[in-house]
Amino acid sequence: MDLVARVSHNFTESADLKLQALDVLAEPIAAAAEHMVQCLLSDGKILSCGNGGSAADAQHFSAELLNRFEMERPALAAMALTTDSSTLTSIANDYAFEQVFSKQVLALGQAGDVLLAISTSGNSPNVVRAIRAAHEREMTVVALTGKGGGQMGELLQDGDIHLCAPGERTARIQEIHLLTIHCLCDAIDCLLMGVE
To answer: 143 exposed, middle or buried (CB, 10 Å; 0-12, 13-18, 19+)?
Structure first.
């Protein structure tokens, strides 16, 4: 096995897929950032959720907004629904794991807020339920998916935004998701603070 060739292949595949994603995602990423900024300027908040690597992405996004991304600015109202172990385990134990995000959305979400729902397959049952809960609370959903969007893509309504990464491999989709999150953070900062 030639590990150097394998590493080279992974880099090339990732770069090629990101360039393909540019054509598909640039406009909806800009639209999502504009919608998130309008939410924040209206004293709303952005909730985010996902499982596994997508949970890490939800937390990463929330941290970049609450603290800062690449420029100094006031803290922005964002919250990852993946971080409170007591809440997550009590809901999973008392009800079902499929409700760990939806119950939080119903409790914390308000009309005009945004849910950033992340799933590489688009089929995570607890994220699907979170989208339904967000619609019940009259929130906008920004769905960050791959593999065609799955059930999440089918649930989206007018005003929601679908950021569907091309590709079938989870690792490549996650790499596009991370770049998308950084693009969202950069665009939000530029819209709020201007560009030097």
So the answer is: buried
Q: Write the CATH number for 138.
A: 3.40.50.10490
Count: domains in the chain: 1
The residue range of the domain holding 76 is 3-193
Q: Rounded to whole angstroms, how far apart are CA atoms 178 and 50?
A: 13
pLDDT tens by residue, the chain, 196 residues: 799 999 999 999 999 999 999 999 999 999 999 999 999 999 999 999 999 999 999 999 999 999 999 999 999 999 999 999 999 999 999 999 999 999 999 999 999 999 999 999 999 999 999 999 999 999 999 999 999 999 999 999 999 999 999 989 999 999 999 999 999 999 999 999 987 6
- Rounded Cα distance between 31 and 141, Å, is 12
How many angstroms separate the CA atoms of 118 and 49, rounded?
Answer: 6
Name which of 112, 123, 130 is nearest 48 in CA terms.
Answer: 130
